[in-house]
Amino acid sequence: MKICRCCGRSMENSEMKCTRCGCQYVNTLDDDAENREIQRCQDMRNKIILPKITEIAVNAYEYQLRGADGGLESKGRKKIILADGVMCSDRIYWSPVSFGQWLYSEEAQDLELSYKYAGKEYIIYAKIKPIKCDDYWRVGLYIDAKLNLWIYVGTDKKYSKAGPYEITLA
User: 58: burial class by Cβ within 10 Å (0-12, 13-18, 19+)?
Assistant: First the structure.
């Protein structure tokens, strides 16, 4: 077994091209060539693959005041774009958009996210445990070295996280 230098996927020894990200595997004979090959794969990841991950969004519920009684009524769901792939690569990117907290349950809740890869939309259904914070929630997104998405809910000081969720690269 060998590991793709671009997305970290396990590959059979006979494979020369990663079936997930398309990175060509090249055998090397010395450290210099190995370092150049690692750099080539990182360039592919950072300059070709990550820029194709766009419009990472959460499908949020939207509410409005009902009128004189001050109650809330649902307006339905709204897709809120949070980030692009480059923004959350190898770091947690906290969206500037804030959300109300789920305080009615301590059980993990469903969260629907979407993203586009090369213009094609994909859906991720996540389960994340609510956490009580002193402020409104924000959503944090992190794409790790294996091109998986991690989702954070809370603040940069106190949060709950879910993942990893594999990003489809097709």
Answer: buried
What CA–CA distance (Å, rounded) separates 124 from 115?
A: 8
What pLDDT, in 10s, does the model give residues 133-164? 778 889 999 999 999 999 999 888 889 999 99
CB 36 within 8 A of CB 49: no
- Alpha-carbon distance 34 to 13, whole Å? 17
From the number of C-beta atoms within 10 Å of its C-beta (0-12, 13-18, 19+), residue 112 rates as middle
Best CA proximity match to 99, nearest among 152, 162, 56: 152
> What span, in angstroms and rounded, lies between the C-alpha atoms of 162 and 19?
26
Cα distance between residue 114 and residue 64, in whole Å: 24
User: For 25, phi and psi rounded to 5 degrees?
Assistant: -90, 130
